[in-house]
Design brief:
By secondary structure, the protein is α/β, with parallel strands linked by helices. 38% of the residues lie in helices and 14% in strands. The chain has 14 helices and 14 strands. The strands form three sheets. A seven-stranded mixed β-sheet has the order 4-10-9-8-7-5-6, sandwiched between helices. The chain has a four-stranded mixed β-sheet with strand order 1-2-3-13. The chain has a three-stranded antiparallel β-sheet with strand order 11-12-14. Strand 5, helix 5 and strand 6 form a beta-alpha-beta unit. The structure holds pyridoxal-5'-phosphate. The site of pyridoxal-5'-phosphate has 12 residues, from helix 4.
Length: 442
Amino acid sequence: MFKKFKNNKKQLQDYARSIIPGLSGLHGKKPEMYLPGGNWPTYYSRAKGVNVWDLEGKKYLDFTMVGVGCCVLGYSDNDINEVAKKIIGYGSLTTLNPPEEIELAETLLEIHPWAEQVKFARTGGEMMAVAVRLARAATGRDKILFCGYHGWHDWYLSTNLTSNDKLNDHLLPGLKPLGVPKALRDTMIPFKFNNDEDIKNIVKPNAKNCAAIILEPARNTLASSKFLKEIRKIATENNCVLIFDEITSAWRNDTSGIHKELGVNPDMATFGKTMANGIPISALIGKKSVMEFSTKTFISSVNWTERLGPACALAFIEKHKKLKLGEILKEKGVRIRQIWQKAAQNANLKINIQGILPLSTFEIKNNQWPLIITFFIQEMLKRGILASDRCYSNLCHEENYLKIYEDACHEIFYQISKYLREEVLEEKLEGPIKQMGFSRLT
Ligand SMILES: Cc1ncc(COP(=O)(O)O)c(C=O)c1O
């Protein structure tokens, strides 16, 4: 049945959706999030470096997040592959435990000497759920102060039991807490990132009743040192567990979590995503006083004990350090930003660029932004480039590829500017406008 639709992207998408609700396990991999209407390749046959081949064998250059930010060494990295093949040969899951877990725990504790113990899982969201469980267990409190996005689990989505808009400022607007027990209502207290007023009015007065304060040390910008230090002080004074979610931010600027360069230590930190260049593994590091509650409550899963994750994470961290990958990713971030800036300037478009260097995003300042970004993706695809409003730096974004992307940006920004002036941009769109967030979920 599947083979029948293999060469028709739209039919394949519809068929997939009919037997896999929502099509993908990740909201961000739905074709509507890039290009609705049937032209987005959606499925791949193979990938190498920043090249991805679709089911019809057409090759694309990936200038999006390259595996949702998971594959900074490029797809199918030879060194990671070698380790993965070796582990499969040894047996990747047995009655006994993989010794690489101990080595990886030691490595993470060496990088972050403030931490004393480590737990592993396989996804970011479940690692955050573990962190929250431990913080609640250690403090005997239920409430959580937080900002940002931290996964899909009940503890997080329960924020919107109070009202559907509570998560709007924290990455994904319009999320409905359907299926989340109503008893969790009012357990979540959101505050704004880098906002002194919210520290004074929300964090300070609520901290004494909260199990944890949770935030990413960097998202659209780095957290200010003053903001982080103040949060650290409040957490300490009120016996709250301070948790830094480094699932996206770590292993970018250097071979560690970003909080290290900011000079503020949490009580626990979580890692995931690129930690093994796309092989599933996540980690929680923390102070013994909280981590030891892992043995007092019940946290356990079979697939957290397989061997590919820790073995490939060790290989990734070693290669990251050896290459000084953080420096490379920052340099590439600078280059990508220059491309956008220059292309926008030449086309007379106003542009807003955000993010830490390896996680850069852009927005053309215009009230037709959803239309503009959909057109941008459409035209990039015609040139064999997978694109979006963000480009995460990748080791394999080599200069010859950057040049192709640069030329395409210049041409398409010029088209956007011309079509906006002539008021014909909408006519040039060959399908519907892309989905911008969770608010228009189908
Ligand atoms: C900061 C942050 N926390 C948690 C998550 C959830 O991780 P996962 O999708 O692996 O469950 C993500 C994923 O994008 C994230 O960026």
